[in-house]
Amino acid sequence: MAESLPSLAFLGAGSMGGAILRGVVASGIRIDGGITATNRTPEKAAAFDDVDGVTSIALSEQPEGNADAVAGARIVLVGVKPAMVPDLLREIAPHLADDAIVVSLAAGVTLQTFADVLGEDARVIRSMPNTPSTVRRGVAGLAAGASATAEDLALVRRLFETVGAVVEVPESQIDALGTISGSGPAYVYLLIEEFTKAAVGLGFSDADARLMAEQTFIGATALLEASGEDPAELRRRVTSPKGTTERAIAVLQDARLDRTFSDAAAAALARSKELAAGA
Prior knowledge:
Largest sheet: 8 strands, mixed
Order of helices and strands: EHEHEHEHEHEEHEHHHHHH
Helix content: 40-55%
Shape: elongated
Number of domains: 2
CATH superfamily of the largest domain: NAD(P)-binding Rossmann-like Domain
CATH topology of the largest domain: Rossmann fold
CATH class of the largest domain: Alpha Beta
Strand content: 15-25%
CATH architecture of the largest domain: 3-Layer(aba) Sandwich
Number of helices: 12
Strand order of the largest sheet: 3-2-1-4-5-6-7-8
Number of strands: 8
């Protein structure tokens, strides 16, 4: 595992880019050449005043800031809104180093879009991180473009491993990955919401219901991680024969949760395809 990472530029260090930036710094890994981040306003740029080793640029005050940021960067992370990506790529193309690796954080923007502007030889990797990256418990999908080398992918993998787990996929699987790890946190929060409502319905106060529901989910997943067991095995250990949990699980299984989750993932994937087509 690499002991250091090369110089980094975060273009558009918003919620996701900022989370990854902070995760890299929090991990303590050495950055050879430092980190530069750009945002539109001084207010957004000031968000990194408390982060050691980061040069934060406000583009309203330094219009050439993106060009300046990429000029000295080995890894360039593109975190602007998807619609802004082509213009940004045109802006930075003349300033990229020959060995620069360009990493997309922009949902729905294809590797081909990057190749169209930067050229087919550009070393591009498309990523799909998720919001738990902000607490260094994320899952990121990585899809390498044709010109990215194995070493390029290994470097970018190391970068994302500072904020969680990494799954390498072909680009054709990136949208499907997004329906699981990208949208998945929302599914979990929905389950906790409904579990909390069930507790309130049993007569508990809102505060106690929320505490019980949230900590039960947090505790269960912590036990899953610590034990290394299969979730089905842990479920069996809680489910005594002819007991109360068995009766509850039967109700959930009768509700066809298996089909519900697969239908939800399919719906998310269908919408992803619509968005890619401009619908």
